[in-house]
Amino acid sequence: MTTVLSASSIMDGALLLIAANEACPQPQTAEHLMILNIAGIKNVVVVQTKIDLVTKEQAKAHYNSIREFLKGSVAENAPIIPVVANYGINVDAVADAIERTIPTPKRDASLPPLMLVSRSFDINKPGAQISALKGGVLGGSIVQGALRKGDKILIRPGVEIPNKGVKEIECRVESLMCEGGPLEAALPGGLIAVGTSLDPDITKADTMAGCVIGHPGAMPETKGELSFEYHLIERADFDNPPLKVAEPIVVNVNTATGIGVVASMKKGIANVKLKKPLCAAPGSTVAISRRVGQRWRLAGWGRTV
Known about the structure:
By secondary structure, the protein is an alpha+beta fold. The protein folds into 3 domains: 2-101, P-loop containing nucleotide triphosphate hydrolases (Rossmann fold); 114-214, Translation factors (Elongation Factor Tu (Ef-tu), domain 3), CATH 2.40.30; 222-304, Elongation Factor Tu (Ef-tu), domain 3 (Beta Barrel), CATH 2.40.30.10. Helices cover 16% and strands 42% of the residues. The chain is built from 5 helices and 18 strands. A 6-stranded antiparallel beta barrel has the order 4-5-11-8-7-12. A 6-stranded antiparallel barrel has the order 13-16-15-14-17-18. A hairpin with a 2-residue loop joins strand 8 (165-178) and strand 9. The longest helix has 15 residues, at 56-70. The radius of gyration is 21 Å and the shape is globular.
């Protein structure tokens, strides 16, 4: 669920896939719809898959159960497209629904750039010569402004240094890449890879996932404590009482996942002391998970103050 929560922060729309040969909703489907509600992702296309595995009457009944499941949610009026993916049936209708339901947002390239990092890696092959080594790569989505080759950038919260905590990093954009090839400048929309001047050992194995990239002087603050107004969600599968002081929780903000402890509560605002700091602007959406048995379960949402 933390993967889904993190990914939702960089989405302008979503496809909600529901298999026709299973009762609707399955537990994970219900949680995914909760996330769409929490993140406020209103541009949704529902895809009713595997209709070739049920009869016509069963497919219709399942369609009705989907429509009932969606009532009162952000996806209440979403189109529901039945498909048979193995044979390409109605895939064109899904593409058409995406075009009609998930419009490309208007972007202002003049704003200071902000990029949410969802991956980081080392692209050098074992045995590469030192002179041929390339800097670490950060992958994710730009949510505001534009990044250009040669830009000086700041990465927050940065990298963890043993016995010294987490330290922000300044570096340079050496290259920009998207699925279609290299770029001179990158704008919001889709995933991009930012080649940097960083030591690739710093970025290997997604160690910098959850960071935020921007220009120095135009970045959200790094916070060791996170304050947010919160709302708990009703759960039929477990009790979900109000948060308590000293309770451990997991928070998802943008692409970052943080573990913390509730330090204080006041008038619907929780103050959480984080194990590791994260970078978050005021008004950022926070997803809250609490421990239920041996698992972390989605329990609520809020916005930073």
